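Priority: medium. Attachment 1 of 2:
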């Protein structure tokens, strides 16, 4: 009986698979990190107190730093699901803040 339980738990539990966890972190780092970088660019372009051209340049350059930080966080998070949750959640909050401000007359 113990052999059946141990073989089932070792092969059937996908949550403990290090290959799937690493793959999920890689995908989160690439795609959710890119989404966060894009959302931060939108947010900074709307809210920075600079001339429009300077805001766009600064936000674009800052997006590289945000992307690298998102990649590092994807592998530093406790779990792959937490990495997804934080990166996608921050992306949605920043994008929503940028879009709402644009609708209510923020500088463009």
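Attachment 2 of 2:
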């Amino acid at each position: 009986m113990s052999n059946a339980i141990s073989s089932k738990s070792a092969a059937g539990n996908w949550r403990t698979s290090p290959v799937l966890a690493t793959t999920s972190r890689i995908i989160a780092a690439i795609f959710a990190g890119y989404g966060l970088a894009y959302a931060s660019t939108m947010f900074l372009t709307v809210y920075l107190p600079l001339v429009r051209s300077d805001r766009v340049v600064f936000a674009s350059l800052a997006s590289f730093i945000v992307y690298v930080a998102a990649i590092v966080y994807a592998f530093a998070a406790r779990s792959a699901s937490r990495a997804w949750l934080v990166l996608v959640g921050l992306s949605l909050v920043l994008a929503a803040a940028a879009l709402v401000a644009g609708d209510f007359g923020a500088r463009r």
